[in-house]
Amino acid sequence: MFSFAGVCLSIIIIIIILVLVEVIVVPNVCNKRCRSKVCLVGKTALVTGGSSGMGYEIVLDLAQRGCRVIVADKIVSKNLRNKFIKETNNFDILVDYVDLGSFQSVRALTEKLTNREKKIDILIHNAGIGPLSSGLSADGINLVMQVNFYSPFLLTHLLVDLLKNSESARLVFCSSSIIKQLHSMILFEKFVISNPDKYKYSKYCLAAVADIFAKKLSRFNISSNCYDPGVVNTNIHAQFITSKFFYSLWVTIARWMFKSAEDGCQTAIYLACAKEAEGVTGQFFADLKPLHKPKVMFDEKVCQSIWDKAEKLVQLQTDEIL
Which segments cross the bilayer (predicted)? Predict the structure, then answer.
């Protein structure tokens, strides 16, 4: 049996730990807020993975600014659209199906958008899957690499004409500072299909091509930046925890230690609409500020190799190559 004094001591220790977390840890992990009051009436944004997590919060923010928002996701329902409308009072929200694990699905989406939309002003590549995801895609490619990198690469190419129709378009890629752990001289062939660090590599590849997009598209007044949201409390980390006990434990820890989805998406919102970000391109952001790029992004030979091999793997047609 536990003594009363022992129980009281345990409670006091827990309270002290929680207070320390609240005072010390939370301020350090919480993102700065995007204070921009920019109105986006007349603008059109496409957000991938907008049905939950950071994507959901991004859609809410842009819609509240009056933006026409297209949510591209595997989860497509009238209820999702109605929920956005109810929370933002913006009826100009569309939900379109896309499976980033299929190049055919990506092409079907872009064909639909090309026939329906006049322009796209903001393209936010938010969708992604975690490091524990496994298996191959419908195209026979490592699923993490395809969802996190190849499909966004293809989607951007196929939407370039709509982006060009904007007076000033913005590309935003969700990468991660975890790529700092990678050595610059990576042999690309090693992680095309499988690698235990495929999540890191997918985020590295995304950052690498974001830089090249910035160079290739600047003459069309299209900016391209990537950002690190930090460690965010979303289902991307917890989706493979099957035990109810460990899931509850994870949720409790994540709530105290990690950013909320709303906090994590602030840099994406800043890059998408803030006046201060106008004309800024080819940068790596975190907490609303440009950071010194990870060393691996300075290896131009490797970055270009990633681009060239991705062009072939997603099977770009001659008229789709930038």
Answer: 7-26
- Please report the pLDDT score of residue 6 as a whole number: 62
Q: What is the pLDDT of residue 244?
A: 63
Alpha-carbon span 68 to 93, nearest angstrom: 6
Which residues are CB-contacts of 94 (< 8 A; sequence separation ≥ 6)?
A: 68, 69, 70, 71, 81
Residue 270: what pLDDT? 97
Residues 6+ apart with CB under 8 A from 117: 44, 70, 162
Residues 10 and 119 in one domain: no
Q: By C-alpha distance, which of 174, 178, 134, 131 is closest to 152?
A: 174
Model confidence at 185: pLDDT above 90: no
What is the residue whose two structure tokens read 């006049």?
118
Residues near 180 by beta carbon (within 8 Å), at least 6 away in sequence: 294, 295, 296
Q: What amino acid is encoded at 7 in this protein? A: V
Tell me, yes or no, whether 86 and 26 share the same domain.
Answer: no
Asked if residue 19 and residue 136 are part of one domain, the reply reads: no
Q: Is residue 322 part of a domain?
A: no
DSSP string, 217-277: HGGGTEEEEEE---SB-SHHHHTT---HHHHHHHHHHHHHHSB-HHHHTHHHHHHHH-GGG
User: Which pTM value belongs to this model?
Assistant: 0.84
State phi, psi for 105 to the nearest 5 degrees: -65, -40
With H, G, I as helix, E, B as strand and everything else as coil, classify residue 164: helix
- Joined together, the tokens standing for residue 181 give 């752990």
Q: Structural domain tally of the chain?
A: 2
Q: What is the pLDDT of residue 97?
A: 97
Starting at the edge strand found earlier in the chain, the sheet holding 289-291 runs 93-97, 68-73, 44-48, 122-125, 169-174, 222-227, 284-286, 289-291
Q: What is the sign of the dihedral through the CA atoms of 188, 193, 196 and 200?
A: positive
Q: For residue range 119-129, what is the model confidence (pLDDT) as tens digits?
A: 999 999 999 88
